[in-house]
Amino acid sequence: MNQVNRRITLASRPDGYPTAANFKLVEDEVPSPGPGQVLVRALYLSLDPYMRGRMSDAKSYAAPVPIGGVMEGGIVGRVVASENPKFKLGDHVEGRLGWQDFGLSDGRNIRTIDPKAGKLSLNLGVLGMPGLTAYFGLLDVCRVHAGDTVVVSAASGAVGQVVGQIAKIMDCKVIGIAGGKAKIDYITHELGFDVGIDYKFEDLDAALDKSCPDGVDAYFDNVGGKVADAVFRHLAYKARIAICGQMALYNVDTPEPGSRNLRFMLVSRAKMEGFIVSDFTDRWPMGLKRLARWVREGKIKYREDVVEGLENAPSAFLRLMRGENFGKLVIKIADE
Ligand SMILES: NC(=O)c1ccc[n+]([C@@H]2O[C@H](COP(=O)([O-])OP(=O)(O)OC[C@H]3O[C@@H](n4cnc5c(N)ncnc54)[C@H](OP(=O)(O)O)[C@@H]3O)[C@@H](O)[C@H]2O)c1
User: Fold this and answer.
1) Domain span(s) for CATH 3.40.50.720 in the chain
2) What is the second-level CATH architecture of the domain 129-278?
3) Assigned CATH topology for domain 4-125+303-332
């Protein structure tokens, strides 16, 4: 193949917030598939907060990207050459093939997707990893029931927007916490959340007192930090807390001392559980089926933040780290 494969690699490990200097764009020849392999042309790349963890070599649940290695990331793409009988030319697939134009797979880390089932990029958002995170975190970890008061932080983001909408489907009262008027207007007017709290401008304690007079039954925590501290002060009896992410801490080298919250958990007899979406891999097909039905029925809406061009992935990722994305952040790499 006579084309160039652009790859975004990790040039250095960040110290605090990542910068453009932590990434390097390199150009290679497009590889050819060996026996059992598939060559995939990436069309969309998903940018997600977990990638900040892969840039660091601190101990975590997954190995870091090595210096000089291609940045890890999920893509949706088209098979352009195949030596694997399970995949044929033109098939659309989703998988972790990294920040690059073309990726090779042995077929184990990609799955075929149906391009007629909806927009291809949704397989990286509401019908992909973030949607599944919302689904299992809310239903299995928070174990919500009709009538529960549910609070979700980073509420307009890829995970948060789905959390709030599933909670509404389950007949819960939903309070979304997000930064800025546009995001608050979106979750309340477009997505039907009952209340939106702008943590950048409002007094969180006063807003939570007003919106959760009987306390918070379930908290889906995407951010940690001061937002989580405030929600902990409003827990209801037997509250459940799902620790999904800690956006407020990812770029801080020395987090403020924690464990200030445990007294509130004691008083409310609350339960807190961390989870990773891959804990539920065996039930993903069932989760995806339900999410797809809700999207088809118009019960779950979605908002994407689409940036054109693989070369813009580093600057878009820096925007995500600063909380400047609005909806699921996706890079469009090539035309469908
Ligand atoms: N456990 C799992 O398996 C799993 C899987 C996927 C994602 N996650 C986690 O889920 C969370 C949300 O991920 P996502 O993909 O849906 O991202 P996202 O919400 O689309 O984007 C991140 C959002 O976090 C908010 N934020 C950024 N810095 C913040 C800060 N210092 N304090 C408070 N909020 C801040 C920003 O929204 P505002 O403008 O509203 O502040 C930003 O838009 C992340 O923590 C991620 O790591 C976990």
Assistant:
1) 129-278
2) 3-Layer(aba) Sandwich (3.40)
3) Quinone Oxidoreductase; Chain A, domain 1 (3.90.180)
Residues of the chain with CATH 3.90.180.10: 4-125+303-332
Contact 302, 16 (CB under 8 A): no
Q: Mutation test of ligand 1: which of 247, 277, 329 has the most ligand atoms closer than 8 Å to its C-beta?
A: 247
Task: Give the nearest ligand 1 atom to 200 CA.
Answer: 41
Alpha-carbon gap, residue 123 to 165, rounded angstroms: 18
* The model's pTM: 0.96
> Which among 243, 77, 58, 71 is positioned nearest to 159, based on CA atoms?
243
Name every residue whose Cβ is closer than 8 Å to that of residue 21 and which is 6 or more positions away in sequence: 11, 12
CA 30 to centroid of ligand 1, rounded, Å: 34
Looking from the CA of 215 toward its CB, the CA atoms found within 13 Å total 18
How confident is the prediction along the chain (336 residues), in pLDDT tens digits per residue? 558 999 999 999 999 999 999 999 999 999 999 999 999 999 999 999 999 999 999 888 889 999 999 999 999 999 999 999 999 999 999 999 999 999 999 999 999 999 988 899 999 999 999 999 999 999 999 999 999 999 999 999 999 999 999 999 999 999 999 999 999 999 999 999 999 999 999 999 999 999 999 999 999 999 999 999 999 999 999 999 999 999 998 998 777 776 677 889 999 999 999 999 999 999 999 999 999 999 999 999 999 999 999 999 999 999 999 999 999 999 999 998
Provide residues with CB under 6 Å of ligand 1. Answer: 48-50, 130, 133, 154, 156-160, 178-180, 183, 222-223, 225, 227, 244-248, 275-277, 320, 323, 325
